[in-house]
Amino acid sequence: MTDREENEVAALCSDRRYEAAYALLVRAQTPPLFRLAVRMGLDSDDAQDVLQDAFINIWRALPHFRGDAKFSTWTYRIVANEALAALRKQQKRRLWTVRASDAPEAVATSASNDVYFQADEALALLHRAQAQLPEKQRLVFQLRYFDEMPYSEIAAITGTSEGGLKANYHHAVQKIRAMVQTIKPNPADDLLNAENE
Amino acid sequence: MKHDGIHLNEATLERLQNRLSDLPQRERRRVRVRRLVTVCSTAAAAVVLLVWLRLESTAPAILQAEAWLHQTTNLELMESLETRSWDSNAEELGALLTDEELNQLSLVKTSES
Predict the structure, then answer these.
(1) Does the beta-carbon distance from A31 to B13 stay under 8 Å?
(2) How far does the CA of residue A148 sit from the closest CA of chain B (Å)?
(3) Alpha-carbon gap, residue A193 to B89, rounded angstroms
(4) Which of A35, A53, A138 is the mutation pick for testing B, counting most B CBs within 10 A?
(5) Distance CA A19, CA B20 (A)
(6) Measured between CA atoms, how close is A19 to chain B, in angstroms?
(7) Using the beta-carbon criterion (under 8 Å), do A38 and B6 form an inter-chain contact?
(8) How many CB atoms lie within 10 A of CB A135?
(9) DSSP class of A62
(10) Cα(A157)–Cα(A166) distance, integer angstroms
């Protein structure tokens, strides 16, 4: 979401034109938020459900938005919470059908089998590895690595301190590197090395 | 944003955006329906309460009458009917029955005597 769009939404909200502000948020934020939900390991249908629930909350809360954070950060936070809740529900359901040790693998394959996923082997491997991270660590990794968000913004989304986030991201990278090397020593490691440099 | 390999289908995205854009309207409709349901259920509850209160207020009188009926012998009952209700309703009954029919009623004869 650009600064101009942020200002526009803020101006519409201050004029109490919430419907217009909401429409602008939908137009600007649906693609990145849908992408985030899919990347978190949800399939297309579940990601759409998550966005619908999140946008109901956004619409209801829009008149009460205090302006503590950017609108984009706020919407990311709501969608991230909804996505985490959906993943937890999925995991509970999955526990009835597969053994607990199989669950991370099941999450990992859901993104790769999705019709929207198309990438080279290195990126596919990176997705598979990051899908095995704990949910919150996965969220931090994605926001930092793929969305290239500053730590301050990720802190506002996840509700954790910047110091904690840096440590969390570092651990996530270490884990992914180890996982990638275990699966197959290949170019996915180079992607992470390039990120650190 | 880095390339993440995820390609969003344009048609799906457009459908989703349309669905999300309709949410405020659907929410308003839902709130209106919910308000209507609240009003209707409150009215129904009020009616039920009124009926219950009415029954509660008449219940002692009914119980009293039942108790009286159980305690009263048939003869006393007949006497009571002749002296109280029959007297008060005689005129009304007289208007509904012919003289001949009235004469045939033993109760009328009894009260006349």
Answers:
(1) yes
(2) 6
(3) 108
(4) A35
(5) 12
(6) 7
(7) yes
(8) 17
(9) G
(10) 14
Which H or E run includes A176? helix A162-183
Which residues lie closer than 8 Å to A194 by C-beta, 6 or more apart? none
pLDDT for the residue numbered B108 = 47
Residue-range domain boundaries for chain B: 9-58, 72-113
Candidate from B1, B16, B21 with C-beta closest to A34: B16
> How much is the mean pLDDT over chain A?
82
Nearest in space to A123 (alpha carbons), one of A62, A166, A186: A186
Q: Does domain A119-197 have CATH number 1.10.10.10?
A: yes
Say if the Cβ atoms of B5 and A51 lie within 8 Å.
no
Q: What pLDDT is attached to residue A108?
A: 47
Residues A1, A133: Cα–Cα separation, whole Å: 28
Nearest to A22 by CA among B29, B17, B13: B17
| A88-116 per-position pLDDT tens digit | 888 777 766 654 444 444 444 444 444 45
Architecture (CATH level 2) of domain A1-118: Orthogonal Bundle (1.10)
Within 8 A of A114 by CB-CB distance, chain B residues are: 6
Token representation of residue B6: 């995820």
Instruction: Locate A164 and state its tokens.
Output: 């904690």
A157 is written with which tokens?
């989304």
* Minimal CA separation from A66 to chain B, in Å: 20
Name the CA radius of gyration of chain B, rounded.
Answer: 36
